[in-house]
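Reviewer comment 2.1 asked that we show a complete input and output for one of the modelled complexes. We chose the adenosine monophosphate case, as it is the one discussed in the main text.
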Amino acid sequence: MFPSFTLRYAHLPARMSAECTPTPAAAPRLVAFNHALAEELGFEAAAFDAAEATEALSGNAPPEGSAPLAMAYAGHQFGNFVPRLGDGRALLLGEVSDREGRLRELQLKGAGRTPFSRGGDGRAPLGPVLREYLVSEAMHALGIPTTRALAAVTTGERVMRRLPEPGAVLTRVAASHLRVGTFQYFAARQDVEAVQLLADMAIERHYPHLAPLSGGGRYLALLEAVIARQAELVARWMGVGFIHGVMNTDNSAISGETLDYGPCAFMDAFDPRTVFSSIDERGRYGFSNQPHSAQWNLARFAETLLSLLDEDHDRAVALATDAIEAFPEHFEASFGAIKRAKLGLHRVEEGDDALAQALLDAMQAGHADYTLTFRCLAEAVEPAGEAALLELFDDREAIEAWLPRWRERLTREAADAAAIVARLRATNPAVIPRNHLVEQALTAAAEDDDYGPFEALLAVVTRPFATPTDADYTRPPRANERVLRTFCGT
Ligand code: AMP
Ligand code: MG
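Response of the prediction step:
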């Protein structure tokens, strides 16, 4: 039932990874399987065999043709360089060619210890596995580049965290698992050959339009392309109120996909200072710091490429610096376009950014829910429909002043009200995976073996632009439901 594997990463020089057999799971049970994604990856739907999938995706009997390995990588964690991190609990099975001919990697996360495990147990608790499943699939449905979730299998064993929890394995699908940290691992060892192999693989897999280039220009173009894609990614996160929470360089994917759903969370009421992660004491990775963090990570990426950019070190530094300094421009262009779209605007006008900022300021002053404010704009195109929007604000002065300004701006769009309403509904989701709902779903599964809430929530968050019949999926948390801290859950 599995498509055939190619082993591109496995065929790189041996020092770039460690072959590793998954640790068998005592009593594996398939608790989630993404049939739509499997189909996309070239699995034969008719040949789906739950028993085979369970054995394969628990790591007990890796699929035929796969060659499990742990990738080597380093990383800056909260600004501190760790020269050897690597896959401590994840194993790359290999790549499959999807129905569109794109290579996609399959990785088992939580499949046991590897040579990179250090003190860790190589395992993953069920809660974080289901969180990654839910949130990554929601992100995909929101149109945001991300790794995907193919399956979750419980192991039948407990893992020790603060309390014992059921163990699980997530099958993650990524365009690739190349990270800034992968480059850093080899650059730190002055292994220019490996860095070049990684750069060439990144170009081939993620930026094939650069393949004809050669010399230093080829790698400068790669750097610029990765910068543009990361800028776009962070802008998209911010368009839906997403906070990654742990933007370390080892969690920064060269493909431009969102990678690693640890202590991530979505904002409810808008506040640009929002931080959720329990390990982010200084707010390094808070909502509005994300562009800055991405730029910082990209500067670390640029450093790894210096020797490929130019033989002359000073010239290489100058080229890399120029590229990195262009990040804010890329980000502002992407975020500006997203904000305009969220306001229903297609035309570009000078004052649009200020108009968007004024709405954000009004939300902050009125403690209004970020997702619902944008979603309610569709009704508020006409003053008769603005009540639901106004209700979101506990201080209405600023929003009442803003609405006429926005409506006046809409008159200069070459579209009638119905077309603008349709645009707004297609751009601003009704549903995000709200933290309190995610927590409830995870708790029911982990504590009561009840997957009902997980399945129901997954069904709703993977159709985010439809208004669900049950308003519990759209409303913000009540005071007693509010999630103020998220944990890495490793
Ligand atoms: P993360 O916080 O998931 O980005 O992981 C950071 C580093 O810690 C990576 O090298 C992981 O492979 C490693 N790691 C996280 N959890 C575990 C675990 N349970 N066992 C072994 N290594 C782990
Ligand atoms: Mg990670």
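Residues 180-336 form one domain. We note this here for comparison with the apo prediction described in Section 3.2.
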